[in-house]
C-alpha cells in the first residue's frame, strides 16, 4: 500500500502502473451538479480516503484539470478514477448497466429519506450528492434505491455536501467490514 503525505501528493503525477495496483472498495461517488470546486476537490480526497472505485462528475460540476480542484484535492485527482457525464440520469443508467446489483443511495433531505445510520448498505454502492443549494434533483432521486439523510439537532437545516458525504461514506465502509 502506498502512503503519501500532502507534500508528496502535491507534486505527484498518477502513475498508471501504481494506479492499477491500488485496491478499491466497491464504492462510487456521483456528484449531481455540485458546483463548488473546493467541495469537488475535497470529495476527491474523501474518495481516496475510502479507496472508492470512482468519482462520477455530472451536469454543471467542474472537472480536473482545474487549479482549485487540484488545490483542494491535494492532487488526489491524479490517483482517483473519475468520469464526467452531461447528466446524472445518464451516469446512473450507465452504472446500473455496467455494475450488476449496484445500490444507488442519495444523500439528501426528502420526505422519503431515512436516517443514514439506520440504513442497510450493500455493495457495490453508489452515493449520490447534489448541488449545494438545490440538492439532488427530483429526476435523480426517482432513480435511487434509497434516500438517506443526517439528523440535524441545531438551528441549521443542513451540512456541507462534502461533510455529509464523508459521514455517510465512513458508515458505508463499516458495512464492508
Question: What does this 3D model show about the protein?
Answer:
By secondary structure, the chain is α/β, with parallel strands linked by helices. It has one domain (28-176): SPOUT methyltransferase, trefoil knot domain (Alpha/beta knot), CATH 3.40.1280. 36% of the residues lie in helices and 20% in strands. It contains seven helices and seven strands, in the order ααβαβαβαβββαβα. It has a seven-stranded parallel beta sheet with strand order 3-2-1-6-4-7-5. Helix 3 packs parallel to helix 7. The protein is globular. The mean pLDDT is 91.
Write the layout of secondary structure elements.
Blueprint: H1 6-11, H2 16-21, E1 25-32, H3 37-49, E2 52-58, H4 67-73, E3 82-85, H5 88-98, E4 103-107, E5 114-115, E6 125-130, H6 138-141, E7 146-149, H7 161-176
Helix pairs in contact: 3-4, 3-7
What's the short story on this structure?
This protein has 177 residues and is α/β, with parallel strands linked by helices. It is built from 7 helices and 7 strands; from the N terminus they run ααβαβαβαβββαβα.
Amino acid at each position: 500500500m502506498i502512503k503519501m503525505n500532502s507534500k508528496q501528493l502535491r507534486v505527484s503525477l498518477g502513475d498508471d502502473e501504481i494506479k492499477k495496483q491500488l485496491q478499491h472498495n466497491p464504492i462510487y461517488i456521483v456528484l449531481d451538479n455540485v458546483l463548488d470546486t473546493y467541495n469537488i476537490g475535497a470529495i476527491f480526497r474523501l474518495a481516496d480516503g475510502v479507496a472508492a472505485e470512482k468519482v462520477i462528475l455530472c451536469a454543471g460540476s467542474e472537472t480536473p484539470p482545474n487549479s482549485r480542484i487540484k488545490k483542494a484535492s491535494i492532487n488526489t485527482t491524479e490517483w482517483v478514477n473519475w468520469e464526467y457525464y452531461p447528466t446524472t440520469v445518464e451516469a446512473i443508467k450507465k452504472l446500473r448497466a455496467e455494475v450488476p446489483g449496484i445500490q444507488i443511495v442519495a444523500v439528501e433531505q426528502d420526505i422519503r429519506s431515512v436516517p443514514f445510520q439506520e440504513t442497510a448498505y450493500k455493495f457495490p454502492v453508489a452515493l449520490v450528492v447534489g448541488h449545494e443549494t438545490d440538492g439532488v434533483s427530483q429526476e435523480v432521486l426517482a432513480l435511487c434505491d434509497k434516500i438517506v439523510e443526517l439528523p440535524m439537532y441545531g438551528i441549521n437545516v443542513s451540512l456541507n455536501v462534502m461533510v455529509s458525504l464523508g459521514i455517510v461514506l465512513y458508515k458505508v465502509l463499516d458495512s464492508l467490514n
